Here is the input.
Amino acid sequence: MRRPSWHELQAIRTLAEQRSFRRAAEMLGLKRSSLSHLVKGLEHNLGVQLFQRTTRSVALTEAGQQLLSRLTPLLNEMDEVLFDVSAQRQQHSGTLRISASDAAIGLLLTHVIPAFSVQYPQIELDLAAQGALVDITAQGFDAGIRLIEDVPQDMVAVPLGGPLTFVTVAAGAYLADHPPVQHPQDLQQHQCIRQRLPSGKRYRWEYQRQEESLEMDVPGTLTLDNNALMAQAAISGLGIAYLPLPYASAGLANGQLVELLAEWRVQSAGIALWFPPNRHQSMALRLFIDALKTHLPY
Here is the structure.
C-alpha cells in the first residue's frame, strides 16, 4: 500500500470539515474534479470508502471517521511544527477573514484597526458584517467575534475585556417633554427605540435590581438593528434607547445623553473572538487578538 502524502491527508481533513467538494476545493486551491480524483485515488489505495457522497452532501463513513480521529492530532502537531519554523517569516503578513456583527466591526474600526494597520501593514483584514451567527469553518473564516453567550460551545473562545454593561439613555430634550422614568415599568409610557435581532425578533430589554428582575418588550414606533444608529437616534431626541455602554459613553460624557434607571443596570458576559478547536492560530490571528485585548475600551 502506498503511503498517502501530506497533501492528500490535508485534503481529506478539509473535505471532512467543509462537507462540500466545492468549498473544500476552493480552500485547497484545487479544481473540484481534481479533489474528487484525489479522494477516489486515496480510497482505492487504502481499500476502504472514506466518504458517503450524495448530490447535496458529503459525510464521513465509519472508516473515514476512524481515520480522521487518529489523524487529526498528528496533523495538528505537524501544523505546530511547521508554524513554529515559519512564524518569524510570517508574523507580519497574511490575511485574516473574520465574521462579526456590524456593531463589533464598528468597534474594531474605531478602537483597534487604526493602530493595528499601522503596526502591521502587511496583514490584510477581510471583515464580514453578518447579523446572523454563521458556521465560520464552512464559510472559510479564520475567526468570529460575538457576545460570549452566542459563541458555539464546541469552539475556542478568547474573551475580550470584561463584562459588557447595558444602559438606558435618552436626550435631555426628550426627557424634558415626557414623564419621568423611575422604574422600568414607566417605559410603557414612552417612545422607546427598539432593536431588531438577526432572527427577526425584537430584543427584550432586561433589568435587575437586587432580587427583582424584569424582561420587557417596550413600546415604540422606531425599530433599528444597529447599536450605533440607536445611539444616534437617542441623541436626536427620538426616544429612549437601551445600549451597550461603549455606544453611549461619548454621548453621556458630552451631555448629549442622560442615563436612566442606573440602579437597574445589567451586564452581559462580554464579547469574545472564537475559532475552531482543530485549527491552528496563525501568527496574524495571534497579533490581532493581542491588539483586541489592548485597544478595546472594555
Summary: The longest strand covers residues 94-100. Residues 62-90 form the longest helix (29 residues). The mean pLDDT is 85.
